[in-house]
């Protein structure tokens, strides 16, 4: 059985703070792409920190409108600032993407399991992200680069639709500028001004350098992309236990109690969202599960 | 000055060919190079050559009225570009533009076809590799069709 | 060997009075507006005396009867879930304050502690299942916990089964074995009308002291146990659970799902009346001034398309997938999640399904189809 990521403390009876949002204020809002924005939040309560492990998510509330699960994209070494990258697809996310500096919203969390950064030490680390899937992985990348010596090869593979959809452009350039990590970026289609790769992200796995049997992979992106990425990684010698994915379902309570996020026997919000692929393969590959 | 045979021998697509077969393939080829911006082939031209890229980068583009030329893949060192036709000459449905200085081996498709007819063992070896290349291209194309990043 | 006491049925009102004196709100079955409800009782006379229910797939009828029995009816729609995990709960209020908000939690608001009277073994089994979900998981459900700890339960062994009952095959009834403070067996023998009483807790023992009672005679015990035994034997439906989880895991694409789907209306009645179903959704509202926001917790069912909606579409758009989700969860994935079966054999889903779908029959049909039927 694959090692489970470290879980947050079990909340004992008598406490119920996890039902009530904590108040946070928008420090800044940055436009990433046409419909994706990154918010940086600080607690209304002076000095309050929000420790989290990369891979976890918070439930963000726009009071009176609704609440949505958004992965935490910040640097785990800086828990005083919460960073969330949000795509405006519905009423609540559109509202979040329009919040100005100083606006107050609610935060519940952190919930869920995290990327197994400890387990990946002393092995090659391959991170494959598709589209917005880079957001839940960013904290893991920060951690791996801050503790670079603990890992073997570190390869970051990122694919998205077009050059305009590239997330965290500056960060990608900064990471690429380092001599101890390889960054491969590709887009599905591009105008002539694009100098980088064009083609599906799974092709870049061919070019990445890692020793399959001694590698751990973190994969996050659209379901289709993750399935094909897993297949490619298996041909390179990884096992199902060493490929970790981050799954998504309709999450509402974050506590494993409301029932919406179930995938077969697992609750994505509580047993995930990060899973070793071996644990979810059967149900993930079923239709309408 | 390197020979076509030496260069093809080092290319992944032709890995594993016997030296006799490699020689037969090399006889159909010539070393070519393209400056940045030059086209290896253009839409609706006859597909006379099949390219094995040695170094550099080629953008495979389709021209759309609304968005101009759109690259759907890039082909680089160690990869191939082209169609091996049998019955009638194939006409390119895309443009292939060198994005930087690019060196390749251009294999004349008609000559390669004749060499395969003359030696069926060679034919089978070439077709095996070509069939695998096509299968991979189809898989990639389907994934791109699905537009998996769309919400 | 359980220790039985006996008390005349005429003493039941004293029991209710004793509960009121202890500050409890007494909740029990009652007939109101032609329905069998589970509501607050001012006195024992409000129990459904002179009524009996007739249940079948897709039908529930209440009939008048001559019998003076207090507990002749089986279970109606409501179960303990209605009180311990209410369908509508306001979690908090948020009031605008300057540029920010002030949160006022409201979910722990509660009245007097409940004393449930007339709870059946299947519902006690349902309670045990919900305890695992709400008390034994990583996060505790605080309102459920508060009401649960304060609740007193006086249970009743069933002496008659309905056509839709199948607790005996699951081992969850008709005899209640745990989870009660007191449990009664109602016996009518000729002119005699009495209760056998077993004590389940120290508080139950205290309450028993407040009504006249005596150690039960062997023939009284025999009469009571015979009635409960007959209730078990008379059940016609059953659910075979051996290997059921793995069977359902392996039969995700069984053709029979299509046949159930053709009948199922995806109305969600079954999930709504099930004593163990726990899905709920969260809804935020804003008042007209825009100054006061509220968050509500509302009971939900997995039969809606919305239930599995995620930006762009539903994961389970077809009725087939949704019925399969409910049944597979109830009888298979639940076991991996909570270490017990999600079904307690109460039969409510069969009774209250508008088209009379019977999950025991559907499981049987799935097995037959898998074994090579069509």
Task: Describe the model.
The complex is a heterotrimer of chains A (289), B (151) and C (374). The two termini of chain A are 23 Å apart. In chain A, strand 11 (215-220), helix 5 and strand 12 form a beta-alpha-beta unit. Chain A has helices at residues 91-96, 135-146, 169-177, 201-207, 223-235, 268-271, 277-284; strands at 22-33, 36-43, 57-62, 66-71, 82-87, 104-111, 124-130, 154-160, 182-187, 197-198, 215-220, 243-246, 262-263, 266-267, 274-276. Residues 1-5 of chain A have low confidence and may be disordered. In chain A, the strands form three sheets. In chain A, strands 10-9-8-7-11-12-15 form a seven-stranded mixed beta sheet, with helices on both faces. In chain A, strands 4-3-6-1-2-5 form a six-stranded antiparallel beta sheet. With 289 residues, chain A is of the alpha/beta class. In chain A, helix 4 (201-207) runs parallel beside helix 5. Helix content of chain B is 33%, strand content 30%. Chain B has helices spanning 4-9, 19-26, 109-118, 120-145, and strands spanning 29-34, 39-41, 49-55, 57-64, 68-76, 80-81, 95-98, 102-108. With 151 residues, chain B is an alpha+beta fold. The longest helix of chain B has 26 residues, at 120-145. With 374 residues, chain C is an alpha+beta fold. Chain C folds into two domains: 5-233, no CATH class; 244-370, no CATH class. Chain C is 33% helix and 25% strand. In chain C, helix 8 (244-250) crosses helix 11 and helix 9 (256-263) crosses helix 11. Chains in contact: A-B, A-C. The interface between A and C is large, with 48 and 52 residues.
Keywords, separated by commas or semicolons:
heterotrimer, A: 289 residues, alpha/beta, Elongation Factor Tu (Ef-tu), domain 3, Rossmann fold, seven-stranded mixed beta sheet, 7 helices, 29% strand, disordered N terminus, B: 151 residues, alpha+beta, Jelly Rolls, four-stranded antiparallel beta sheet, flavin adenine dinucleotide binding (chain A), oxidoreductase activity (chain A)
């Amino acid at each position: 059985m694959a090692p489970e990521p470290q879980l947050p403390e079990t909340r004992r009876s008598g406490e119920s703070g996890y039902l009530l949002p904590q108040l946070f204020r928008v420090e800044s809002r940055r436009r990433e792409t046409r419909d994706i924005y990154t918010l940086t939040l600080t607690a209304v309560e002076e000095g309050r920190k929000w420790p989290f492990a990369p891979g976890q998510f918070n439930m963000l509330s726009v009071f009176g409108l609704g609440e949505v699960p958004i992965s935490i994209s910040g640097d785990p070494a800086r828990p005083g600032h919460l960073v969330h990258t949000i795509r405006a697809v519905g009423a609540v996310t559109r509202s979040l993407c329009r919040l100005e500096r100083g606006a107050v919203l609610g935060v519940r969390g952190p919930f869920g399991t995290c990327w197994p950064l400890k387990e990946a030490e002393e092995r090659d680390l391959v991170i494959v992200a598709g589209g917005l899937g880079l957001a839940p992985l960013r904290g893991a990348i920060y951690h791996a680069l801050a503790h670079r010596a603990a890992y073997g090869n570190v390869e970051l593979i990122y694919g998205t639709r077009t050059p305009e959809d590239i997330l965290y452009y500056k960060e990608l350039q900064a990471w690429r500028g380092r001599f101890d990590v390889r960054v491969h970026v590709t887009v599905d289609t591009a105008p002539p001004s694009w100098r980088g790769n064009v083609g599906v992200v799974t092709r870049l796995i061919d070019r990445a350098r890692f020793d399959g049997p001694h590698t751990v992979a973190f994969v996050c992106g659209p379901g289709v992309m993750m399935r094909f990425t897993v297949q490619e990684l298996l041909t390179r010698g990884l096992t199902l236990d060493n490929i970790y994915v981050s799954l998504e379902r309709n999450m509402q309570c974050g506590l494993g109690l409301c029932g919406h996020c179930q995938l077969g026997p697992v609750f994505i919000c509580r047993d995930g969202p990060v899973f070793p692929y071996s644990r979810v393969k059967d149900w993930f590959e079923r239709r309408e599960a | 000055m390197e020979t076509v045979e030496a260069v093809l021998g080092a290319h992944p697509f032709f890995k594993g060919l016997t030296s006799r077969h490699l020689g037969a393939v090399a006889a159909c080829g010539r070393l070519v190079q393209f400056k940045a911006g030059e086209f290896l082939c253009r839409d609706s031209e006859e597909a006379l050559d099949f390219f094995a890229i040695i170094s550099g980068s080629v953008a495979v583009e389709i021209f759309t009225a609304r968005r101009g030329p759109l690259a759907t893949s890039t082909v680089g060192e160690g990869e191939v570009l082209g169609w091996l036709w049998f019955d009638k000459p194939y006409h390119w449905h895309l443009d292939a533009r060198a994005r930087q200085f690019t060196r390749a081996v251009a294999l004349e498709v008609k000559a390669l076809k004749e060499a395969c007819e003359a030696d069926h063992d060679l034919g089978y070896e070439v077709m095996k590799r070509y069939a695998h290349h096509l299968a991979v291209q189809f898989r990639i194309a389907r994934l791109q069709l699905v537009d998996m990043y769309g919400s | 060997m359980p220790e039985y006491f006996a008390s005349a049925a005429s003493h039941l009102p004293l029991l209710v009075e004793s509960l009121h004196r202890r500050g409890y709100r007494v909740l029990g079955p009652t007939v109101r507006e032609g329905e069998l409800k589970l509501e607050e009782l001012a006195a024992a006379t409000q129990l459904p005396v002179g009524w009996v229910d007739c249940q079948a797939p897709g039908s529930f009828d209440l009939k008048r009867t001559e019998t003076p029995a207090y507990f002749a009816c089986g279970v109606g729609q409501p179960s303990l879930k209605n009180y311990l995990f209410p369908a509508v709960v306001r979690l908090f209020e948020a009031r605008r304050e300057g540029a920010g908000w002030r949160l006022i939690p409201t979910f722990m608001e509660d009245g007097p502690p409940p004393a449930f009277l007339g709870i059946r073994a299947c519902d006690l089994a349902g309670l045990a299942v919900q305890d695992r979900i709400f008390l034994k998981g990583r996060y505790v459900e605080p309102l459920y916990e508060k009401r649960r700890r304060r609740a007193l339960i006086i249970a009743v062994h069933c002496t008659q089964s309905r056509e839709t009952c199948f607790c005996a095959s699951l081992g969850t009834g008709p005899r209640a074995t745990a989870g009660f403070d007191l449990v009664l067996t109602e016996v009518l023998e000729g002119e005699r009308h009495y209760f056998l009483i077993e004590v389940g807790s120290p508080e139950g023992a205290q309450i028993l002291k407040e009504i006249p009672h005596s150690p039960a005679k062997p023939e009284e015990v025999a009469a009571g146990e015979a009635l409960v035994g007959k209730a078990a034997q008379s059940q016609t439906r059953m659910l075979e659970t051996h290997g059921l989880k793995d069977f359902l895991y392996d039969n995700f694409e069984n053709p029979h799902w299509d046949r159930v789907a053709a009948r199922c209306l995806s109305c969600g009645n079954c999930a709504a009346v099930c004593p163990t179903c726990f899905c709920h959704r969260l809804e935020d509202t804003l008042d007209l001034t825009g100054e006061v926001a509220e968050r509500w917790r509302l009971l939900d069912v997995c039969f809606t398309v919305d239930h599995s909606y995620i930006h762009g579409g539903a994961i389970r758009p077809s009725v087939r997938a949704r019925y399969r989700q409910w049944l597979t969860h109830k009888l298979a994935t639940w076991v991996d999640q909570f270490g017990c079966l999600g079904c307690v054999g109460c039969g409510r889903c069969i009774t209250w399904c508008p088209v009379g779908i019977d999950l025991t029959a559907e499981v049987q049909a799935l097995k037959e189809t898998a074994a090579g039927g069509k």
